[in-house]
């Protein structure tokens, strides 16, 4: 999941889907054109880039390799949003530098089985939860 620890997020997808990121995030820049990826990375200097794999599957390997070979982009985390799990393609992407995968199937399953304790765990960081546990004792 995308957490608030990422101050600047670049989303590369054809449309701003509600499954990927809410539209009210102020720290998210959404681009549709593939030729705007690297100028946007240079302008924004994001902490995280989220690629819609279904949209750029042909160019994904080339883009990730270019990001990973450039020292200027060394601290950027790369996330890949995919419709389903594909072990062969996922292992290749992981090997060339993709840090996170978000699968549409898993998001739908999580949304169906979400419990209240899990909601609090997602909202609050572990140090905050530890502090709250210490306060109750």
Q: Which blocks of ≥5 consecutive residues have pLDDT under 50?
A: 18-22, 131-137
Q: What share of residues is helical? A: 40-55%
Number of strands: 5
Could you say which overall geometry the principal axes of the C-alpha atoms support? globular
Contiguous helical run count? 7
Strand content: 15-25%
- Please give the order of strands in the largest beta sheet: 2-1-3-4-5
Order of helices and strands: EEHEHHEHEHHH
What distance lies between the first and last C-alpha atoms, to the nearest angstrom?
Answer: 31 Å
Mean pLDDT: 76
The biggest sheet amounts to: 5 strands, parallel
Q: Quickly give the structural class.
A: alpha/beta
Using only CA atoms, what is the Rg? 17 Å
Features of this protein?
137 residues, 17% strand, alpha/beta, disordered C terminus, 44% helix, five-stranded parallel sheet, 7 helices
Structure overview:
The relative contact order is 0.13. This protein is α/β, with parallel strands linked by helices and 137 residues long. Strands 2-1-3-4-5 form a five-stranded parallel β-sheet. Strand 4 (77-82), helix 4 and strand 5 form a beta-alpha-beta unit. The chain contains seven helices and five strands. It has helices at residues 37-44, 53-56, 60-69, 87-96, 104-112, 116-123, 126-136; strands at 9-12, 28-31, 48-52, 77-82, 100-103.
